[in-house]
């Protein structure tokens, strides 16, 4: 019940007014393409954005699934995409996603202080999440938006729901190594669900491109945590993804960059 409540609180905190999108010049074809993009997100290797083919070189993927976004290559790629007008929903999404990626980094960095001697996964994926958060920051700067994480220290968040979630996740992860690995898998599930939801209403090419890479990274990280749990003799049960969507991810190989 705790996990379900956390999910509903997360989604309520975004509180994005989708009616704003009626004021944008959208077409039926764009909405259809967004839905198709979400369908592809469930498994491995699907196209996550209109420019998915060009995105491949942005991300470096290690054998263990650690997925790191290159800031220099990202900057070069974004320079070829237009700076489009932003809806209020898109602005709110960027601010929230910036802190959600920071949450993943900060939780993993903390768990590494507890369990890093046993497994390197928390340190490796924390480093990766830092590049994911930096990718969203690049978008905030590109659109001259305020960075909600500009002055917050590790474990601190402007969003009160994320602040509460950080406390609960770190407390759960401190119980045992298995609990810490489960926390990692839960975080990646939430990231996947949130990014998929955002791609329904986000239409700016550059944001969709970055979110597509973040999705790929989260799928790879979920695979890594599930594998680590299997090596501990534990079968992970998804908390947020449907069983079908979960199996479509963990039942496929790590996605290359």
Describe the structure.
This protein has helices spanning 2-14, 28-41, 52-55, 71-78, 88-115, 121-142, 160-173, 177-201, 205-231, 243-250, and strands at residues 59-61, 67-69. The chain is globular, with a radius of gyration of 17 Å. The chain contains 10 helices and 2 strands. Strands 1-2 form a two-stranded antiparallel sheet.
List the helices and strands and how they pair.
Elements: H1 2-14, H2 28-41, H3 52-55, E1 59-61, E2 67-69, H4 71-78, H5 88-115, H6 121-142, H7 160-173, H8 177-201, H9 205-231, H10 243-250
How would you summarize what this structure contains?
The protein is an all-alpha fold and 257 residues long.
Q: What is the helix fraction of residues, given as a range?
A: 55-70%
Share of residues in strands: under 5%
Low-pLDDT parts are: 1-56
Largest sheet geometry: 2 strands, antiparallel
Order of helices and strands: HHHEEHHHHHHH
For the record, give the distance between the C-alpha atoms at the N and C termini, rounded to a whole number.
36 Å
Overall morphology: globular
Number of helices: 10
- Count of strand segments: 2
User: What Rg do the Cα atoms give?
Assistant: 17 Å
Structure classification: mainly alpha
Overall residue-averaged pLDDT value: 84
With strands numbered from the N-terminus, the spatial order across the biggest sheet is 1-2
Annotation keywords:
257 residues, mainly alpha, two-stranded antiparallel sheet, 10 helices, 2 strands, 2% strand, globular, disordered N terminus
